[in-house]
Amino acid sequence: MLMLPAAIIDGIMYAAWLFLVAVGLTLIYGVMKILNLAHGAFYTLGAYVAATFVGFWLAGDYNPYYSYLLLLLAGVIGGLVLGVLVERGILRRFYKEDQVVLLLVTYAIFLILEDVVKMIWGVEPYVISQPYGLLGSFNIGLLYYPNYNFVILGAAILSGVGLALFLKLTRPGKLLRVVIHDREISMALGINVQRYFLVTFVAGSILAALGGALTAPTISVAPEIGVEVIVLAFAVIVIGGLGSLPGAALGALIVGLVRSFAVHYFPEVELFSIYAVMAVVLIVRPMGLFAAAEPRKI
Amino acid sequence: MSYQIKIVSAAVATALLALGGTAQADEKPVKVGIVTFMSGAAAGPFGVPARHGAEVLLEELNAGKVPAPYDSVGFGGTPLEFVYIDESGGTSQQVTEFRNMVDRAGVDMVIGYTSSGNCLAIAPVAEELKTLTMFYDCGTPRIFEDDEHHYVFRPVAHGTMDNVGAAMYAVDQKPDMKTYAGINQNYAWGQDSWRDFEGALKQLKPDVKLTTSQMPKLGAGQYNAEISAIMASNPDILHSSFYGGDLEGLIVQAQPRGMMEHVPTILTTGETITHDNKIKIPDGTIIGARGPHGVFAPDSELNTWFRNAYQDQIKGDPWYPSYKMAQTILGTKAAYEKAKADNGGQAPNTEQIIAAFEGLTFVAPSGEVKMALGNGHQAVQEVVYGTARNVDGKLTFENVKRYPSEVVTPPEGVKSEDWIKNGMKH
Questions:
Q1: The pTM is what?
Q2: What confidence tens digit (pLDDT) does each residue in A166-183 have?
Q3: Domain-by-domain residue ranges, chain B?
Q4: How far is CA B265 from each of CA A17, B141, B176, B184, rounded to the nearest angstrom?
């Protein structure tokens, strides 16, 4: 009796987390056409900065409810610093190169940042679980769910709706859509594309770091936590269509629900389920569910 | 993913001689390659405490401070030199590293390896290079059950005993149980652990029924759906061989949901999380240490020395990987010194050490160890489980039960899987 509602709730919660960690990746690809493999390292660094901030705060015996503010701050500060450093310091020098070169550059950044994490924080794990249980829980029969899940759900909805409204209703958002549509025409129209690249990359980095920071209270923060995340995030945005915001949302929902139903009803195929769905979607829609048709320029 | 290898230190013999004081100044040290995870997810729970164990042994042995029967300096009076190698990077990289250690660094022997995959890959290379190699932690019984090895030893018990012992403890503590469930990582370690636990439990209680077996990917990180599935299936007992960040993540996510309070949970590697006071282990959780290690090590002069020496140097308690590393080094020392005595007091060669090691019985901080399986190359040892109870904010263990090696380990020449299927008879 409990299995169906549990599978739906677990699927939605997992989808919210997936969307949160994938939305920055699809945003950066949509605007900059960069498959940012360093996204997983930004997630890891966000989690570590959060673990440091919150660990320090809780050790000081301060009001634990302020730790939620620190999680947000960790994501924003971590993502902002990293985003500016990486875009200004490295990526800007490679924009004229082929997409494959940029892919390799972001992979190199990923490897470097993974080692930076070990250099700063060591290899021993950090646990800051107090914020996870602090907000209480709700139950369905025997099953209790921490209300903290609503923080993740809320962050996912806010980031998705916020980005959509920004792109649709604001002037900078409309100009950004022009950049997404055609970089060269945008430059010809006098749009400062370089600045939009910086802002987009920083926004994507903040979303990745925020994903890590908000996840930190629910996991053991240890090196390489970003590896699994980057694989899942890619599965989500490939299913939805690279660069598509609604695609990422639908991709996250599909992956979340498929995995949850597999866990509850067919646990032996759980490992395979996500990639089976991805394969089916790509057979039917090779560019993903929401990928826009690309006009040939020549 | 590739990682840079970190050859972290080579302790120079002259410095060690200053500590030891008894060895000859021009004597060539015994050079040992120590391989364990120094980066990656397995570093925190296994690699770092194991390396700390090696560092403590290196200093204490070279200073001649270890109690009898290990009170001679280094190995048989010859000081030791350790070369540390990171176990990360996968089996191909480890095979390359092993060859480099032997061919370039010129190590006399190798001690290490946490990952069963790495052990399976290294064993044939050790045979090819004729290099004495001691595995200190990897659990797969296949090393000596699927092959015979001449140069490879494992002076710690293999994984079958952990899960057979877990099944015995579950039946002892909950004789009226009717259902069981599992959550294990979906790769060799998790699958083997689950197979052995489930097989042993069905032998001990044939009427017991499975409710759900969850096998998330290694490093998955998010376990809420699995926790829901386990709680919804309402088993009488839950088995898990999770370790490291996965285990911590599972406990962190299960805690506010009350899973482990509701379902008594057996954690076969649980001892590694008992040292972090940020993780609260619920009362009633069944904890294992992969043998009589860590908190379950018996009282003895050797154990007291090891704990004190470790606390002095590392400023913390030794974990079970520290104990297993210490046991492996001391077992090798025992074999080396027996070979040296058999060789009229002259430094033994590799073949002589092997002859002395085969079938050896030695003592370690974790008690007596017998090299009883794999033609004398594989150790057997008792297994211990206890139930966690928080008393005045301190974690204690009650109902601690010790299962002798003869009860939880298959006899020589019988594969673990077949032994369990045939009723675990001796």
A1: 0.88
A2: 999 999 999 999 988 888
A3: 13-158+297-380, 160-289+392-421
A4: 27, 24, 16, 12
